[in-house]
């Protein structure tokens, strides 16, 4: 298997993961026509920083459902394959667009969450932070379904990058550094359409590194990829693990 050979020969291997990696865990990718939650609302409109500020009830009406939808979701074999690669010294870091904490739950150590995660919610006024569990309790206890800061009574905001927000500078800088120095960048389950994350593989390519794209469906960077795998994600990663094992 070509990708396994490239990984064995590489000094630095980095994975960049997107929504497709969470799909086998039962978390739908809202960019593909989906089910349930994503059919009734447009997340790009509701999960927006302006809605959070202007209409926190509406925002949390949506985000509360999102919290509920992510509850009890478990890492899948793709997450676990990446943990095994890291443990074997064959993977330096995982950069993810996913906010669902599944890479961390699976055991990935070097993890860059460029869109934040649902692990905490924060008060934008005083900086107070609560855990996901505390946020769920506050949300359930509030008659309007809005988790609020203890001190300021202002609505808390999940520590995720909402539409209309900038990506956290430290995380994106770290991601850029990793991609620029990667000999092999594996892009897994991402349609590579959302900037600035979509431009990360270009940093690898410009620096002379190799891009592998493992996802179903076309991406704008397919022409740059030395390895292009488009089968079922769990099957492809299983085959890779086997070839490296
Ligand atoms: Zn506060």
Short synopsis of the structure:
With 245 residues, the protein is α/β, with parallel strands linked by helices. It has helices at residues 2-9, 37-40, 43-46, 49-54, 56-70, 77-87, 102-106, 132-141, 169-180, 200-206, 233-244, and strands at residues 13-17, 93-96, 111-113, 116-122, 129-131, 157-160, 184-188, 210-214, 227-229. The protein contains 11 helices and 9 strands.
Structure description:
By secondary structure, this protein is α/β, with parallel strands linked by helices. The chain has 2 domains: 146 residues, TPP-binding domain (Rossmann fold); 88 residues, 2-Layer Sandwich (SIR2/SIRT2 'Small Domain'), CATH 3.30.1600.10. The protein has 11 helices and 9 strands. The two termini are 12 Å apart. The site of zinc ion (ZN) has 8 residues, from loops. The site of zinc ion has 8 residues, from loops.
Morphology call? elongated
Question: Roughly what fraction of the amino acids lie in strands?
Answer: 15-25%
Helix fraction?
Answer: 25-40%
Per CATH, the class of the largest domain reads: Alpha Beta
Number of domains: 2
From the N-terminal CA to the C-terminal CA, the straight-line distance is: 12 Å
**What name is given to the CATH topology of the largest domain?**
Rossmann fold
Number of helices: 11
The CATH H-level homologous superfamily of the largest domain:
TPP-binding domain
Structural class by helix and strand composition: alpha/beta
**Biggest sheet character:** 6 strands, parallel
Bound molecules: zinc ion
What's the order of the H and E elements? HEHHHHHEHEEEHEHEHEEH
Low-confidence stretches: none
Arithmetic mean pLDDT: 93
């Amino acid at each position: 298997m070509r990708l396994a050979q490239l990984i064995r020969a590489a000094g630095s291997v980095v994975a960049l993961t997107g929504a497709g990696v969470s799909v086998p865990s039962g978390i739908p990718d809202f960019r593909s026509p989906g089910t349930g939650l994503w059919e009734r609302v447009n997340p790009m409109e509701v999960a927006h920083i302006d809605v959070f500020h202007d209409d926190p009830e509406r925002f949390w009406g949506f985000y509360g459902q999102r919290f509920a939808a992510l509850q009890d979701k478990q890492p899948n074999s793709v997450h676990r394959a990446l943990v095994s690669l890291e443990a074997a010294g064959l993977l330096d870091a995982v950069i993810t667009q996913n906010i669902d904490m599944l890479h961390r739950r699976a055991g990935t150590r070097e993890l860059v969450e460029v869109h934040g995660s649902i692990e905490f919610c924060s008060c934008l006024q005083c900086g107070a932070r609560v855990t996901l569990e505390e946020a769920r309790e506050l949300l359930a206890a509030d008659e309007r379904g809005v988790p609020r800061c203890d001190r300021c009574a202002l609505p808390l905001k999940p520590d995720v990058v909402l539409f209309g927000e900038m990506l956290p500078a430290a995380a994106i800088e770290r991601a850029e550094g990793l991609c620029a120095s990667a000999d092999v960048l594996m892009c897994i389950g991402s349609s590579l359409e959302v900037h600035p994350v979509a431009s990360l593989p270009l940093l690898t390519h410009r620096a002379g590194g190799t891009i592998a794209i493992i996802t179903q469906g076309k991406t704008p960077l397919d022409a740059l990829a030395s390895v292009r795998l488009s089968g079922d994600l769990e099957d492809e990663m299983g085959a890779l693990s086997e070839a490296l094992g």
